[in-house]
Amino acid sequence: MNDILQHLAILLEQRKTADPSTSYVAGLYAKGLNKILEKVGEEATETILAAKDFALDPQAIVKETADLWFHSLVMLVYLQVPVDQVLNELAARHGVSGLVEKAGRNPS
Fold this sequence. Notes:
Blueprint: H1 2-14, H2 24-31, H3 33-52, H4 58-78, H5 83-93, H6 98-103
């Protein structure tokens, strides 16, 4: 599963130098962080709505979650946060109680 995320991250990195008129992602990068964050927020909302209406359209949650993950990857690549850092964080949390993990976070 990590392979597709890493492959997408490489592709998204390559899109940084692509022509915004021929690449959706290059167009997002050209519009800057606020536009990317707007897309992440939009996809998060659509994912929530798809979950709410799961009984009506079970496939919508899959499609909307894919959109959310994709745009989250765009955000990470734009910010130069290696996708491996997120995957490593998830791996570090694996097998740790959510309550224990949350209690160990630095207050922000």
